[in-house]
Every structure is written in C-alpha cells, then in structure tokens.
Amino acid sequence: MNAFADLYRRLDETTSTNRKIAAMAEYFERTPAADAIWAVRFLIGRKPRQVVPTRKLMAWAGEHAGISEWLFEASYDVVGDLAETITLLIPPPTRVSDRPLHVWVTQDLLPLREIDIEDRRRQILAAWDRMDAPQRFVWNKLITGGFRVGVSRRLVVRALARMSGIDAAVITHRLMGEWPATADTFQRLLSTDTSDADISRPYPFYLAHALDGAPEDLGPPKDWQVEWKWDGIRGQVIRRRGQTFIWSRGEELVTDKYPELATAAAELPDGTVLDGEILPWKEDQPLPFGELQRRIGRKRVGKKLLAEVPVSFLAYDLLEFDGRDQRSATLARRRKTLARVLAPLAGSRLMASPVVAAPDWEARRHLHGESRRRGVEGFMLKRCDSVYGVGRRRGDWWKWKIDPLTVDAVLIYAQRGHGRRAGLYTDYTFAVRQDDELVPFAKAYSGLSDAEIREVDRFIQRNTRERFGPVRSVRPELVFEIAFEGIRASKRHKSGVAVRFPRILRWRRDKTVAAADTLATLKGLLTAP
Amino acid sequence: MKTLVQTTPSGLYCAAGDFYIDPARPVKRAVITHAHADHARSGCQSYLCAREGQSVLQTRLGAEARIEGRSYGETIHLNGVSLSLHPAGHIRGSAQVRIEQGGHVAVVSGDYKTDPDPTCTPLEPLRCHTFISESTFGLPIFKWPSTDAVMAAIHAWWRENREQGLTSILFAYALGKAQRILVGLDPAAGPILTHGAVEKINRIYRREGIALPDTRYVGELEDRSLLREALVIAPPSADHPAWMRRFPKRSRAFASGWMRIRGHRRRRSVDRGFVISDHSDWNGLTATIACTGAETIGLTHGYAVEMARWLQEKGQAAEVIEMTAAAETPVDGEDA
Known about the structure:
The complex is a heterodimer.
Chain A: H1 2-13, H2 17-30, H3 33-43, H4 54-65, H5 69-79, H6 82-89, H7 101-109, H8 117-128, H9 133-143, H10 153-164, H11 168-174, H12 183-189, E1 206-207, E2 209-210, E3 224-228, E4 233-240, E5 243-248, H13 259-265, E6 272-282, E7 285-286, H14 289-296, H15 303-308, E8 311-321, E9 324-325, H16 331-342, E10 350-352, H17 361-368, H18 371-374, E11 378-383, E12 391-392, E13 397-401, E14 405-416, E15 425-434, E16 437-444, H19 450-462, E17 464-468, E18 471-474, E19 479-484, E20 486-489, E21 497-500, E22 503-507, H20 519-524
Parallel strand pairs in A: 1-12, 2-13, 8-10
Antiparallel strand pairs in A: 3-11, 4-5, 4-6, 6-7, 6-8, 8-9, 11-13, 14-15, 14-18, 14-19, 15-16, 17-18, 19-22, 20-21
Helix pairs in contact in A: 1-2, 1-9, 2-10, 3-7, 3-12, 4-5, 5-6, 6-9, 10-11
Chain B: E1 6-8, E2 11-14, E3 19-21, E4 29-31, E5 46-50, H1 54-61, E6 67-70, E7 76-78, E8 81-87, E9 95-101, E10 104-108, E11 130-134, H2 147-163, E12 167-171, H3 177-184, E13 192-194, H4 196-207, E14 216-217, E15 231-234, H5 241-244, E16 250-255, H6 262-268, E17 272-274, H7 282-292, E18 296-300, H8 304-313, E19 317-320
Parallel strand pairs in B: 3-4, 4-5, 5-6, 10-11, 11-18, 12-15, 12-16, 13-14, 13-15, 16-17, 18-19
Antiparallel strand pairs in B: 1-2, 2-3, 7-8, 8-9, 9-10
C-alpha cells in the first residue's frame, strides 16, 4: 500500500492540476492492475462505507495511545480530521510491511464488516502495527468511510486517458454504473475494444453552470429551451433487454427504492435511456424536497409511505433510443423523440418535464418570478441545438436559479472547522432577535473569504463567553447576512423553523445586533412568494 | 505563584522585584525572554535580557532602546529578589527567567525547546517550586520528527525542484528558524538566497560566530539564471504576489511545527510542509515540566487549558495563566 499512500500524499500536497494528473498517470502506469482498479474506485469517490462506529474507533485509538477520552477529543478538535488525529496519536508500528493495496482491501478492510466488534478491534490494531504513518493515514481514511482527496472524477479520467491513449469520454462512460474491482475491469477500462456489453451502465450526466449574467445576454429567446429546475434527485432510467435500472446522479442503483417508477419504466421500449428528475409528486405537482428525504434513506418502502409520498420521474432528455446513443443529436431532435417514446405512457409516473412556453425573455422573467410558489428552484436554459455532453461545460446549458431568501443574523456560537479549516473557528451558529433574546436558527460554514475567516476567528478567541466542549459561546456582536434556499415550519427547532442550505452571504459590518432581523421577520418568510 | 509572579493587564509581573516579563504594554522595567515580536515590544524605559540575545534585541527594538545584557546564570539582586536568566534553547539569546525570594524559586520559561539547535545555547533544566511554562504545542498530536530527517526531506525537495527547474521557496521565521535551517543546509547542494529580513539577522549571527553557509540577498541578485536551482529562505510575510513574482517557476514550502497538521498546510496552500519548530513538542514539554520538580505549574500560550487538565489528572497542581489578548500569541504566530 506504500505506492497508494505515496500517491495520496502527492495529490494532497499539490494544488496544481497538472501535477495531480501526472502523479496519477505515473501511479497507474507503475501499479499492477489489481491495485490500480481499487485506486481508481477510491479516487473517483466510491469510498468504502465506515466499518466501525466513530465512537468505538476513537476509544480504541485513545487506549492504544494511552490518553483519556477528553484529550483525544481535544486533539481531534484541533486536527479536524479523525483519520489524521488517530495517525498522529498512536504509537509507532513494530513490523511495517508493504502489502499490496488490493490485499489490504479484500482480505482486511472488506471482511471487517462481517466479524464481531472485538475481532474488529484486534484486526485494526494489528493493521496499525504493520503500517507506517502515510499508510495508516490512508487506511484510517478508508475504515472511517471518509476517504477523499482533492481530485475530481474528471482528473482521474484525464490521468487514465493520458497513460492509455483511450478517449476520456469513453473512459468516463466505462466508469459509470457498477463494476467489480478486479484486474480484468482495469484492463477493460483501458481496452481499445469498444464493444462494451454491460446493460445496466448509465451515461455520464451532463451538468450546467450557474448563469452569471442576465439571460437576455444569451441571445435570441427562440434559441433556448426553457425548463423548470426541479428540486428532486437527478437520475437516469434505463430499459434494456427487458430489464429496468434506475440510477441516481450519485451513481447509486435505486431501482428498488422507487417501485412505482420501475413499474412505469417496464412499459418503455427496449434500448431506452432517459435523463430526468425523481420528484415527490402528487396531484400534478411536486411536494417539498423534505418529503422525498423520507424515502431516500429507505431500502424498502412501505405501503403507507408509498401512498403519502409517491414519486414521479420527469424526463428532461433522451440519451439512448432503440439501443443507439442519442447524445450527439441536437436537443431539439432528442426532445422530439422523447415525446414520441413517452406518448404511450401518458398518465403514468414517467413523463416528459414540460418545456416552459414563454416566447420572450420578459415573459420568461415573469414566470421565473413564480418559481418559489411553484416549488421549483428556477429555470434550466438549454440551447436548442446543443448536444448532450460529458461533465460540466460552459455555454450550452445554464441554471437560472431564483435568488435565495436572506435575513441579517447574529453570530452566537462557534466551533472549529475541519479539513482545510482545521484549527480555525469556522462553523458558526446564527440567531435572530426575539424581544431581548437571541434565538438560534441556522448553522453555516461557508461564504466568508479566508481573510474574513481569520478575522472572525480572532474575534471569537477574544470574545468567548463560555465553552461547552468544542463549542464556544461568543459575545453577540457580529452580524451577517444569511442566505437560504427554503424555509419551513419545524417543531424540532427552537426557532420553530428549519431553513435549507443556509450559508453566509456577507458580513454586515455596518449593522449592530439591534439592527439584526427578528424571529417575526424570519417567520414572515414562511409565506414568501 | 501568586506571591512571586502575578498576571496583570500588562503581562506577568514580579511585584517584589518590580519588573515585568515580556510585557504587552510599555512599563518601567522589562525582562525579555527573547526577541520575537510577541515577547519583545518597544516603549519600555529599560530592558534586561540574556547577553547572547542582546544584539538581536537591539536590532528589533531600535538603537534608542536601553538594553542591559547579562550572562546566563548571573544573579542580579533587585529589591530583595534574586533574578537570573538561563538558556531556553528557543532561539539565540532566549532565556528562562528564574526568580528567588526567601527560599522560594519561580521560573518563567518563555518559549523553549528540547531539540538540538547549533545556533543557540541548549535549554538548561531548572529545579523550582513554581514553573510557568509555555504550552504552544501542548497536545499529544504534536511530536516532532528528528531535525536530521527534516533536513533530509528539505534537501530531497530542493533536489526535485532543481531537476524541474523550479525555485525552491522555503518560508521560515526570519529570526531563529531561518538560521537553524541554514546551519543544516548543504552549501554544495546549490545557491542559497535570502529575503532581506532573514539576511539582516544572518549578519548578526555571523558576527557572533555562528557558522552559517554563504547566502545571497535576493534583492542584489544579478545572475537570474541561479533562480532555477536556488533555495530561497524568506519569512512567511513575503508570500504575496509583489514579492513572489520574481520567481515565476517555483515550489513553495513552509517550515513550522504547525505543518504537523495537514489542515494548516493546506490552508497556506503550500506545496510542502516541513515539521520543524523552535518550540517543544508534547514530549519535550511534559519532560521539561517533570524535570523541574515544581509543586505548581502555570501554563501560558497555546493549549494551556488542555495541558493544565492533563497535569491535574496526574495529580499535579496546575493552572492556566490567562494572558490578556495583547499578550496572547496567535495560532500560526511568528515563531512556531
């Protein structure tokens, strides 16, 4: 595993895209296929699930290091990364080995899940004893389910393309769906033979950029197809050789989670792939995303939930028809075929996402203003002659999102951040005013510049009132404009509301606490248009 | 410790001897443990420091500052207390302050390290009743690799960069860390260039007989072809576009105890972090504290709360000495 640990270090140490690609290409060239395929899997984000509860792992590492629980936690608080904290604390190994990555994964890591907890403890301690610090760090990342390194799937694909000469789009497609991590798979991944035969394999999703200018600047309105931007789960429905596969954008096979969609999809002709959105849908309109969350976590859904939160699939696009890849046809053409394919399924839970019929930008702006009331996030703008690309490209597809809701709120609690923000107070709780009280309503972690983060960190260090474990209460003085995508009433929150995707929009240095918004103002947004 | 040393808004104060240790504000009489900016501030009427550090302190505070230098171990009698300065091994001239009155001994450590450093006199372990220790790196996650291993890693990084035609920029605190690294560098490996702030301190160290390898001040460099193979030592404050643009092809690294934590390295977005500190690591702190045999331990700076609790668990009387904001060293401070 030395080579993989070294690769991790090299990727982690540089911010240069070129150096990252070079490091990966070099690794893939030198590494046996049986190891390389696991590296590919982990690097593109298919990390193994956590094999030990965090609490247990912390306890074992603390015992092994000979320190009390609170000191372990204080250390964790400063390091901001569990795998790293353990690596820094435990005593040095006695018999370092260099077993191959695939041996560690298949013989040690994956079986951990199957054995009882005491055996797990023994195995993990034994593993630590055979690894140097870089290997331990990677191992800990794997067993905590937190494996992540600063490369995107695109970079991994570029490295594979560079070392093999195979087209990046072909590799991207081959990496979709489910495949066993074997030497064979790695060889097939880079094979010049393009007759791939996996019938479950989805296509890479084409993604849009956020619109940064005015839609009018995009040119003639007739060149652009406008769709509602639904607030659900992007997915692909595949019907091939009499079988149905439903994939989420996270490339999870979710066919069993949405039986109503599987039933509807059975009516599709063989050799059809649809791109669209899985939405909680009742009486011709979407339910709030929160309802869909009730279904996301379930492997099997009961009758009651199926009746309460039925889902529909609103198709945006047609990627395969009659067994043929349609991605290089124009959007206009693909939509036409899509309509034809879905016509026989009218009234089912599979339908085409409607194209918004508004002739000019002014009319479109008007409809865009109704987004929140209609339960959508805004518009998608797609050039009518655009092909279905790979990854996220600028130019042909844009997200035109509605402006978030905002309030001015007071910073009252702070906690140290993780990862790049370890050691700094970057995780904040914000409150709004109610009479003489401050009522917390949201936590936010992002939105400030590095310089602002440092300044707020210094303020917190100097204005701490109380400490509750890792959390500090802070003299209420700083006011920030907090943005969020949605708001709903909630009995579980002290404020009586729950907000979605809260983040810091800007620091309101011009405002005092007395000028911050009140809970009444916040609740007023519950009925926002 | 209430008796000999107390905390005041201006910093640690010895009432019996009427002097402050590393005061945060201007006072009549200041005893300075070392010349880093968060310990030595201008504006006091008079200063006392270890002779080994006098020139550096004078350079930092300005020619008009009234500074008296004393040998390590020399006893000074001040209003009935005996005061002496003892090596702390942090940087050149760094001192622990030993105060004795009526058979009671208190020691204020200042910043100190146990690791070897050829540029300064090594830490002298002292026995005392009360020990006020720094705890900048007072958590068990902070354990330093050997200086030799770190120097080898720096050389390897430099070599890699030379092969790719990149200038190696190593950020290190101008006073102390920069010179400690310089002493460990192999002058045959390539040209060594320095930032003005580093070169200024180098001159003093050389004058005092510390054998630093030859360095060239970047500002006077004429042969720019040297840049492709050079190692440049600069203070972290030089890491801004105006100064860095003279090195179009470069690799950046930072030398600090904070580099032990990935998050700190990534936040600085440097290519490499080298774990080398002029402070003690956890083992150094705990061993030094044990060595004093002190009945009471006071802790300042950094992870004082955590160290105090850890010592209390071991049955040791320990408490946090709260510093005013002005006297507190920020995380990522000048000298770590």
